[in-house]
Amino acid sequence: MTDAPAATSRRSRATRVATAAGMAVSIGAAAALVMMMAGRGAPELRQLAAQQPVTSMTEFTVGAPHLQTIAQGIVTIDGPVVWRMRETTVPLTTETEAPNASFAVQRSGTTIYRNDLTSRRTRLETGEALFLPQGDPASRVAVGTDPSVVWNIEMLPQAVAAVPGAGMPLFSSDPITDYPAGTFDLELQRAVLLPGEVSELPGHLGPALVIVGSGRVQVSAIGQPPQPIGAGTGFLARDAVTIRNGDTQPATFLVVLVGDGVDGSEGITVPVTSTGQTTQTQLPTPVTGQPTQPPLLQTPVPVPTAVLAPTMVPATLPPVLQPTAPPVVEPTVAPDVQPSDGDTDGDGLSDAEEAAYNSDPLNKDYDADGLLDGVEVYQTGTDPLNNDTDGDGLLDGEEINTYGTSPASGDSDGDGLTDGEEIYTYGTGPASYDTDGDGYGDGDEVYTFGTNPLDPASTP
User: Fold this and answer.
1) Helices in 19-177 by DSSP H: which ranges?
2) 414-435, pLDDT tens digit by residue?
3) 1-263: which CATH architecture?
4) What is the pTM of this model?
């Protein structure tokens, strides 16, 4: 096991050093904090830093807005564990694996993850992260035109760590025996340091994994001189360390911490029988006699401030927009090949056509979206290699067979909400411009009026 700040692995090529992603910090006279949207790169950070006065020795501690938790999960530790980090490129075709307890950090592009036990899906864009539970089979696929590059940060039992993972290895620790046995909260935190800023990582439960995401920092352990650490480098911090950006450009780093124990006293337990089967989850007994909170939208809807006119004449509401017709999708033009009589998988594309499309003549639904490859090419006009052609968070087959929406239009009913938002965020109908029938489009209710698109009595 390596103590801070010794680095055990770093990238071999400078061209693979990732750009800064996640957020930027603006230090003014009152030391105010400005958070930037995830995924913005180093040019924006450099520009912001150049515009703002930076104190040469601005210090902060964990818990300040500089450091934020971006993903969280629960892990069970029983014996020595190994921290490992890999960089993988996610393919445009669905791949399935049974992951270890790990965090997926999206470095570039976009990836859709699906927990194959719960069918819950998550869309990760640059700078976002997701916790993957131990042993839950999961599928992932890249979407869009930009290459999807992911950092996999794994906590592995010592025996499992002997099996190499896919992708390029970035870091691997020696077996760690400092953690107590039990179930714990695991947190992934991210911070940005402008030039001259200092972050102190105080004591914690067992070694913390620190990863430099971009830039160059100086790490000082107690009683040791500072050592420079570059991007793509991981190290273990057993005790408190100080991380300083002595460079001229912003730097980012990630911290993985083992947090509080989760022993079941909170009232949510999953008992395990002698046969290894889990019994029904026990939830806390609800308090009776209390009023029931009416259901709310999953995402808070901003309510616009109403400004009264000088006179007492009611203000005129903006005209209600009419739905935008979804685009007409023409079927994909077939490649210039001569179809033979052979269609081994019976998907409507000949084996020669499958070769031209780079699909599989032995797999009738190459992208696993619920549509035959031939149907995608000649009927729906969708991409047989991409299971979410329009990138709205719904599989092409789901759109056609379940929701009646267009797999080639992200907003099938033209109401201003994507089909995926309507299904998973607002609960509205993706094929209905006005779900509650109150005369106002769903998107207008959410973004313009701040009303509830599911309640016909909630109108401007």
Assistant:
1) 42-51, 158-161
2) 999 999 899 888 999 999 999 9
3) Sandwich (2.60)
4) 0.48
